[in-house]
Amino acid sequence: ALARGAGPSAKIAARLLQGRIQARTGALLPVGEEKAGRGSRIVFSPPQAGEDPGEEGFILRREDGRLWVRAREGRGFLYAAGKILRYKVKDPSFHNWNGLAMALRNT
Question: CA–CA separation, 46 vs 6, rounded Å?
């Protein structure tokens, strides 16, 4: 989603993220203006008062079930989209070798 005041760079980064997620998972996430209400979404937004992501930096913050991507207009939004795409979620049981041995017994 795009927060009010998000510029062209935020829209480009949101569309890039949308396309890459769709290519990997088949899920088409909507990209549009942020609407009131609850629900999980990624919101691209300019920094709030007191936040300083730096010239080309970004801030990722989770609030109210949303992932907020805050950056100044420019490359920061693209860098944030890349960071999100490189994030890996790993099942903690992957490193549970005793659990793996038990799951594979009698096979």
Answer: 6
Tell me the C-alpha distance between 70 and 48, whole Å.
8
Indicate yes or no: pTM above 0.85.
no
| CA proximity to 57, closest of 48, 67, 69, 66 | 69
pLDDT digits (tens, 9 = 90+) for 2-58: 888 889 999 999 999 999 989 988 988 888 887 766 667 888 999 988 998 988 899
Find how far residue 56's CA is from the centre of its chain.
Answer: 17
More confident residue, 88 or 103: 88
**What Å distances lie between residue 63 and 10, 15, 22, 69, 92, CA to CA?**
19, 22, 24, 11, 24
| Share in percent of the chain as helix, strand, coil (round to 5) | 40, 20, 45
